[in-house]
Design brief:
7-stranded mixed β-sheet, two-stranded antiparallel ribbon, Helicase, Ruva Protein, domain 3, 11 helices, elongated, 302 residues, alpha/beta
Length: 302
């Protein structure tokens, strides 16, 4: 097809929709608002070095390529992972002669490895795979540091990622992300910014890598297991939940039911610096991630 300068967002979406009907099973809601696309790229410049020829961006579910277009215009290398064959064929038609800059991978983003040299992830995530994609991002980031991640996700899901409204939004999702990232909410994106329009609004979310002092020498797997265990019964007191060993405890190296019982026996009677008085009788959402880190350290130290 024509050069990048001859393409625009609406044209890309129309070209794909002329050939196929968006599939609800794949969560295909195509972004058509240029201001949202521009803001996603702008955030990268604010949070890290801007995109250039030295950047390698991963995009998950590019669909018609409206976000891909702006990434390519920045000069960055782009790896686009797309499971829908019709979208893959469309991308290959509209982005010709870009083999050195663009790699299109026809596969499930949850399966297989991602390129090790990724510097950024910028994506309009399909709603139904948002949680497992975030888990894969964290696993990838553990071995291949990412400079900045900008995601467009469902608004309510974004609030749970950032835990920005305290009690109501605290949970295992945000606790896990807190281990590796500062998560900040950016602009809201109304449903009419997509074609077809979803039934809910969306939100741009920024994930910036961070190294937390609170997590030095703390077992990260145990932290995740403890928070997930307690939040699975969020109306129970922490004392009640911790009195029973978490499921799959043996997946954490060195831990088993007998060791857990021994570790928990004295913890409720200890005065633990950094925790509020009477913390065992609070609900999980009453404590922030820093306090859960303290609890994890206290348990693993027994």
């Amino acid at each position: 097809m024509a050069l990048l300068d001859d393409l625009d967002t609406r044209l890309l979406v129309d070209l794909l929709r002329d050939r196929v009907k968006p599939q609800k099973s794949l969560g295909q809601h195509f972004l058509v608002d240029d201001s949202v696309i521009s803001r996603a790229i702008e955030i990268v410049s604010e949070k890290s070095y801007g995109l250039d020829k030295n950047s390698h961006v991963l995009e998950i579910g590019p669909g018609p390529g409206s976000l891909s277009l702006e990434i390519l215009r920045s000069g960055a290398k782009l790896t686009a992972i797309e499971i829908d064959i019709e979208s893959v064929l469309h991308l290959k038609r509209v982005f010709l002669d870009l083999d050195e800059q663009l790699t299109i991978m026809e596969q499930d983003a949850l399966v297989g490895n991602w390129p090790q040299d990724i510097t950024h992830i910028i994506s309009n995530l399909p709603y139904q795979i948002s949680s497992p994609i975030l888990e894969k991002i964290q696993n990838h980031h553990a071995n291949n540091l990412i400079s900045c991640i900008v995601l467009l996700v469902q608004d309510e899901f974004a609030e749970r990622m950032a835990m920005d409204r305290g009690y109501d939004t605290r949970g295992p999702l945000g606790m896990s992300l807190w281990l590796d990232f500062d998560v900040n909410l950016d602009r809201k994106v109304p449903s009419n910014c997509f074609s077809p329009a979803p039934q809910v609004n969306s939100r741009l979310v920024v994930m910036t890598p961070i190294s937390r002092e609170e997590m030095v020498n703390i077992n990260r797997k145990l932290f995740r297991l403890i928070t997930k265990h307690c939040y699975s019964n969020r109306r129970r007191k922490i004392r009640t939940s911790l009195s029973k060993s978490p499921k799959r405890l043996n997946r954490v190296s060195g831990w088993h039911k007998k060791k857990w019982t021994s570790a928990i026996e004295g913890i409720f009677n200890d005065t633990i610096p950094g925790l509020p008085e009477g913390w065992p009788d609070l609900r999980p959402e009453d404590l922030g991630p820093e306090e859960w880190a303290i609890i994890t350290h206290a348990i693993s130290s027994k």
